Every structure is written in C-alpha cells, then in structure tokens.
Amino acid sequence: MEPVRAADIEVLFFDVLGTVVDWRGSIADEVAAFLRRHEAPHVDAHAFADAWVGRYDAAIEPIRAGQRAFASLDTINMENLQACLAQFDLAPSRFSRSELETLNLAWHRLQPWPDSAAGIAQLKQRFIVAPLSDGHTRLLVDMARHAGLPWDMVFGADVSRSYKPTPDAYLRACELLDVPAQRAMLVAAHGYDLDAARSCGLRTAYVLREHAADPAKAGYRGAPEKWDYQAGSLTELAQLLARTA
C-alpha cells in the first residue's frame, strides 16, 4: 500500500502510554521504590506493574458501555492499585492514603522514550501535534512538563468523556481541531488503537516500541492490513513523512 502524502495530513494525534512514554519501565521503577520503602522485596515490581495495567480494560468497560459515569484515569488507576495490592497480599490499609496517592501519581511523571521529544519537535514543524490518550488533561499536562513533550495543545479523555476505542474519543479530537478525520493521523504503538482510528476515517502510523504491549489487551491479534506508515521511532517517522511532502 502506498502511504498517504504528508501534504494530505494536517494533524498528528499520538497515543501516549507506550507510544510516547515508557509506562512499563517507569511504573516498575516507582513500584520498586515503593516496595523497598515498605519492606516488601518478595513482590516483583515488573509483575506488579503489568498486573496494575492488566486490570485497566475491564475497569473502564462499564464507562464505555454507559453503565458507569465517566471517571478520570487517576480514579481508575487508584481503584486498580488497591486491587493489585490485595492481589499481591499487601493489604491496602497497611499504607497511608498519601503514600498511595504518591504512587498513583507516578502516571503523571512517566519517562519518555529517548526519541520522543525530538521526534515530536520535528513533526511539529509540519503538522499540528497533540496527544489522543485515555489520560485526562491534567495528567497529560503534568506528563508533558515532566518529559519535555512539545505538544501544540493538550486535551484528555475528560474532554470527550469517552475512552478509546469508542469512536467519540477520535472524532471529538478531530472536531476540536476542526480537521476532517481523513486529514488526521493517529501515531500509535498499539494495533487495536490504530484499528479503531482507521474505522473512524483517520490515517494511521505504527511506531514499534519494544515492551510496550498492553497487558489488558493480551488477546488482541492485530489487523492483517498494513498501516499507512510504519517506523521504528518518532524521528524515523518524521523522516518518512518528509519524503512524501
């Protein structure tokens, strides 16, 4: 499949967790520090991080289905954190509320992949660049400031009050930037996210990120079709798009 030309694209939306920032490594590091402070070395920090994220999809499905009012990622993550502590035989009541809140806010300070800030800056020279994430606006603002991400604008799932892959999550983002879906492209490391974006009319760019798979989507097999672009980094994607300008 011949990729669409860069001239046909106005806006690049970015999945953030896993695509722009290393959620797994960042959360595992924060969990490891938390476990050391509380003398729980028997718990594997990476397994805990995966279990924490592994609860995510089931936790927000009632919101997608209209069975629960919208709740921010901070709320969902805190509920799942307490469930994970119990899963690993660490009673949540053992920890102060402030300790749990500090750990939960680790999602606001995730570390970027080495190419993320530079790649977004390069892409920003030609396109409007913005996150399209399940994170809420304050989380994404804090993360951008922490990681040096040069977004043109930041709006979170709290704006559309919907979670991906609900179509409103993609279409509301296009509406806010006054761009037709076919002139927007989602950049993501997750095929299920790109599948949903493409079904809404957006173009797609897949970026390979090792160890970025979402444990909540363990059964996803991926679409057989090729994406409009495929790259090994955001800087490589910038180079590919420059060639089709």
Can you describe what's shown?
This protein has helices at residues 23-37, 45-54, 56-64, 73-87, 97-104, 116-124, 137-147, 157-160, 167-176, 191-199, 234-243; strands spanning 11-14, 128-131, 184-188, 203-207, 229-231. With 245 residues, it is an alpha/beta fold. A 5-stranded parallel β-sheet has the order 2-1-3-4-5, with helices on both faces. Helix 1 crosses helix 2. The radius of gyration is 18 Å and the shape is globular. Keywords: Hydrolase.
Summarize the amount of helix as a percent range.
Answer: 40-55%
| Biggest sheet: strand arrangement | 2-1-3-4-5
Task: Tell me the structural class.
Answer: alpha/beta
Strand fraction band? 5-15%
Low-confidence stretches: none
SS field, number of helical segments: 11
The end-to-end distance, rounded to whole angstroms, is 17 Å
Tell the overall outline.
globular
Rg, rounded, reads 18 Å
Elements, N to C (H/E): EHHHHHHEHHHEHEEH
Total strands: the figure is: 5
Mean pLDDT: 92
Main sheet characteristics? 5 strands, parallel
Précis, in short:
This protein is an alpha/beta fold. The protein has helices at 23-37, 45-54, 56-64, 73-87, 97-104, 116-124, 137-147, 157-160, 167-176, 191-199, 234-243; strands spanning 11-14, 128-131, 184-188, 203-207, 229-231. α2 (45-54) packs across α4.
Record keyword descriptors for this entry.
245 residues; 45% helix; 5-stranded parallel beta sheet; alpha/beta; 11 helices
Topology:
Blueprint: E1 11-14, H1 23-37, H2 45-54, H3 56-64, H4 73-87, H5 97-104, H6 116-124, E2 128-131, H7 137-147, H8 157-160, H9 167-176, E3 184-188, H10 191-199, E4 203-207, E5 229-231, H11 234-243
Parallel strand pairs: 1-2, 1-3, 3-4, 4-5
Helix pairs in contact: 1-2, 2-4, 6-11
